């Protein structure tokens, strides 16, 4: 039996990183409301540090009275968290790099720098009453020992969810299953959230593998929008769970065609290539 799991939809954050996609703030609010009507558990509404236009949209979404959790994406910087607080959001995701490729060659920093910044950011967020999840950026190319050290620091400070990000989409399902299983064994009661990319067409398969390994949360985007080749498709995940695994999901699936058509138009794409047509 597949365990109950949480869907974190990041269409408004990662989905908007797809080439040529730029939603208006009104479109973002409409997408958030449709996702809420569908019944997703959590919406990642954007990145407040991007500026006033993004902040305006996030404030509008956060004040819309949605039933789902509304979260924001933040770097390991108190300034990012301040921007989230100014939008009326205290449910935040803090992301830091964990692979040496990201830490040393992209940022020119050290592992110690990452841990120090994580500690500083978490202390600031928790002191301001935030509910925090921590992201491990490029986890699929990270050394396992450092990834665990990073996660344990977050857990020791009170964080109960780690996002395992296959940032450049290099994993395949068996590897995902093995890695998530191992992480769960080492992190105990800490929830694992899986974030897959579709560079080799495996985002959905990897997401299902993560669920089979016991991931508590998975990330999706409508129509599979996202950076480069995209992310795991929300509608394909829903149909796979229902059609292959007979998972009963508390979703109003009648909203799916409306949602996918709206996002497709807003993204400037052609007819949606989705599981619901």
From TrEMBL:
Pfam families per UniProt: HMGL-like
Protein name as catalogued: Homocitrate synthase
What GO biological process, any one, is recorded here?
carboxylic acid metabolic process
Q: Which residues form the Pyruvate carboxyltransferase domain?
A: 5-257
* Family, as annotated: Belongs to the alpha-IPM synthase/homocitrate synthase family.
Q: Is Glycosyltransferase among this UniProt entry's keywords?
A: no
* Alphabetical UniProt keywords: Transferase
Q: Whose protein is this, by species?
A: Desulfofundulus thermobenzoicus
Keyword Transferase assigned to the entry: answer is: yes
| Organism superkingdom | Bacteria
Which Gene3D superfamilies does the record associate with it? Aldolase class I
* CDD domains in the record: DRE_TIM_NifV
Fetch the PROSITE patterns from UniProt: AIPM_HOMOCIT_SYNTH_1 (PS00815), AIPM_HOMOCIT_SYNTH_2 (PS00816), PYR_CT (PS50991)
MF annotations from Gene Ontology: acyltransferase activity, acyl groups converted into alkyl on transfer
């Amino acid at each position: 039996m597949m365990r109950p799991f949480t869907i974190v939809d990041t269409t408004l954050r990662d989905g908007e990183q797809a080439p040529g996609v730029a939603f208006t703030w009104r479109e973002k609010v409409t997408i958030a409301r449709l996702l809420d009507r569908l019944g997703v558990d959590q919406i990642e509404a954007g990145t407040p540090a991007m500026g006033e236009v993004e902040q305006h949209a996030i404030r509008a979404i956060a004040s819309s009275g949605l039933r789902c959790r509304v979260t924001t994406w933040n770097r390991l910087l108190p300034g990012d968290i301040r921007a989230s607080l100014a939008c009326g959001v205290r449910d935040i995701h803090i992301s830091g790099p964990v692979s040496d490729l990201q830490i040393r060659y992209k940022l020119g920093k050290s592992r110690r720098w990452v841990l120090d910044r994580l500690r500083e950011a978490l202390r600031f967020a928790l002191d301001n009453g935030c509910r925090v999840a921590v992201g491990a950026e490029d986890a699929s190319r990270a050394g396992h020992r450092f990834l665990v050290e990073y996660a344990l620091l977050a857990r020791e400070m009170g964080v109960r969810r780690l996002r395992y990000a296959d940032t450049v989409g290099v994993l395949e399902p068996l590897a995902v299953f093995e890695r998530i299983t191992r992480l769960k064994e080492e992190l105990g009661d800490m929830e694992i959230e899986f974030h897959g990319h579709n560079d080799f067409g495996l985002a959905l398969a990897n997401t299902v593998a993560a669920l089979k390994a016991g991931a508590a949360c998975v990330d999706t985007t409508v129509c599979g929008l996202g950076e480069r080749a995209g992310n795991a498709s929300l509608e394909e995940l829903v149909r796979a769970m229902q059609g292959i695994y007979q998972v009963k999901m508390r979703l109003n699936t009648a909203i799916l065609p409306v949602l996918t058509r709206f996002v497709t138009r807003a993204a400037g794409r052609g007819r949606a290539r989705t599981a619901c047509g």
